[in-house]
Amino acid sequence: MSNATSSESSPSTRDQILDEALKCFAEKGYEGTSLNDIAAGVGIRRPSLLHHFASKETLYGDVFERLLSDWMERLDEAIAVPATGWDKAELVLRACLDLFAETPDYVRIMRREALDGGIHLGIDLSGVLRPFFDNAVTYLEGQMDAGVFTRLDARHLLITGYGAILTYFSDSPFVDGLIDDNAMNTKNISDHQEHVIQFFRSALLRS
Amino acid sequence: MSNATSSESSPSTRDQILDEALKCFAEKGYEGTSLNDIAAGVGIRRPSLLHHFASKETLYGDVFERLLSDWMERLDEAIAVPATGWDKAELVLRACLDLFAETPDYVRIMRREALDGGIHLGIDLSGVLRPFFDNAVTYLEGQMDAGVFTRLDARHLLITGYGAILTYFSDSPFVDGLIDDNAMNTKNISDHQEHVIQFFRSALLRS
DNA sequence: GTCTATACCGCGATAGAC
DNA sequence: GTCTATCGCGGTATAGAC
Questions:
Q1: I need a surface site. Which of A110, B18, B48, B136 has the fewest CB within 10 A?
Q2: Residue B165, domain extent
Q3: pTM
Q4: A 55-94 residues, CB < 7 A, strand C
Q5: Cα angle, residue A75 at apex, residues A72 and A80 outer, rounded to 5°
């Protein structure tokens, strides 16, 4: 996630910029972030930053590309683990929850991108995730046909699930105020994860 | 929702500005929206707009205030209707779903505000919604104690539910790409609503 | 109430010295 | 690779004529 240039002790300036840009874009959005903010966070001047990245847009593009490839890799791993029925669903669910908990900045950027509909880049976000989506639909419908899962609309279930899982992390400043506590501390994250698992289990299984 | 100055045929310039600002802030966010965009949408110049609102910040504040009071009113109505058990939950759920479907621009602004943690205003969003939240927690826990609803963490259930319901509307540009269709057309919205009801019913009831 | 004109600032980006 | 200096643009906001 954080860029390690092989086994150097200090990351390259380029990678420092990518890390700081990720943080700023997640926190304040594309429009709300200035190159000055990022440069200041790294400890350099704006023109020095533009020596490493041709423009704000390409910098954002690189941040987003790294985000997508990191996530894809993790998702592929989780999906590859062999399991069946509810166990499989729980495994993927847990993988997503762990992933999101470890990379909250990614989550917030994704949410902003989904909100804006991908204005900032040519990248078609839903297009990239479409294979995962279609795969999951097929799996869920198979389990429903087999009588393992409760019959629900698989496509809407996935969209609802995506919203249910993502929101806790993307809207954590808001959640803080609702629960009068830091939503992103270890215990609360753990509680949230167990709740989501229980919730989906309860909805999908008649045990 | 849309401002009607008593029963005039054409709304006041001030209300036209509020409507256009709502649209722009929802679509492109606070930072992404310029006063030029709003003024152009109304058909006036930027200085004319600033004759009606002292600054961009106060304009945003007024838009948000109207949003909150509109929603509160609707929510209060829905909660006031007498019902018990699952019927009550379904009633409130449907009220929220209808409300969100009718006011997608509100939803997107709310989501942006939750993401940003209320930077743009002094308004503490979670503080305003806190009474509803605490009320709902009490109700859910009562139903769980009575054995009507499946035992789940009521607070997390509400947060998860909030995410599940809001996301379809806030991220509709993204959903479009997943389902290869306009998420906000009548049929898809109706399908989504029925799905959410079924999903929660399945999770909360053992019928 | 709306306009033109203008002041002022911060932004992204470039040129060129070191 | 980093810096200072600068350009050009678009942003918010104000002044003053109509």
A1: B48
A2: 67-204
A3: 0.94
A4: 55-57
A5: 120
